[in-house]
Design a protein that fits this description.
There is one protein chain. The chain is mainly α. It has a domain of about 110 residues. Helices cover about 75% and strands about 0% of the residues. It starts with a helix and ends with a helix. One of its GO terms (molecular function) is transmembrane transporter activity. Keywords: Cell membrane, Membrane, Transmembrane, Transmembrane helix, Transport.
């Protein structure tokens, strides 16, 4: 909470910690309330929620692959989402992104990431999914998606490349309450799904054979995650 309040107070218009706390509890000045609640609070909350989602997705990926090196970018999910976003931005001159808005572009990237993840899971399936095979195939698909992204960036107009690079790097600048709401509900759905499969997922850390002996349908649980 202290770091959160300090981050809100930092900026071109610095606000002291006591004034930040007073504003959060409804006792701040009108200028402080505008700067904090309308300009900086959405940015801070968006960063907090996205950080929670990233940490949770990394933990899920490592648990599914049973490998501490596993992560969404290694399994091709991140590169697949980036390739779809870059394709939309570079092939339409940015007009599709402008029409659909940031939420629409993010939704398309999400679908691309999910499709890439399903492709990796399907290619790794051999009467079950082995963690090492999943990672190896994920690395291969990641390299392929990164090659597609590089080719799109190399053949696009320089202005479209700039837009695509900004999207790939990510930014909390100019985040509003609409983006915070979308991130909140997506993260909440993720938390609900994880909580629903948390109990049957615990025996899977002992191995697929032990989990199957305890009656856990590990293939279904792993596919959901």
């Amino acid at each position: 909470f202290l770091v959160f309040c300090l981050s809100i107070g930092v900026g071109d218009f610095p606000i002291g910690l006591s004034r930040v706390v007073a504003t959060l509890f409804g006792r701040g000045e009108q200028v402080d309330e505008f700067v904090i609640m309308d300009l900086r609070m959405p940015r801070a909350l968006a960063g907090l929620i996205v950080g929670i989602a990233l940490g949770l997705s990394g933990a899920i990926t490592q648990s599914v692959a049973r490998n501490p090196l596993a992560s969404p970018d290694i399994l091709g999910i991140t590169s697949g989402a980036g390739a779809v976003a870059v394709f939309l931005v570079t092939t339409t001159g940015g007009t599709a992104a402008a029409v659909a808005g940031s939420v629409g572009l993010s939704s398309a990237a999400l679908l691309g990431g999910l499709a890439t993840g399903l492709l990796v899971y399907f290619l790794a399936w051999r009467r079950g999914v082995d963690g090492f095979r999943l990672i190896l195939i994920g690395i291969s698909v990641t390299a392929m998606m990164q090659a597609v992204t590089t080719w799109l960036l190399a053949s696009a107009e320089i202005r479209d490349v700039g837009r695509a690079q900004v999207w790939l790097v990510g930014s909390l600048d100019n985040r509003g309450w609409d983006e915070v709401e979308v991130a909140f509900w997506c993260t909440l759905v993720l938390l609900v799904v994880v909580a629903a499969v948390a109990f049957p997922f615990k025996p899977m850390h002992l191995g697929d054979d032990v989990a199957a002996g305890l009656g856990v349908r590990f293939a279904r649980v792993r596919a959901v995650l």
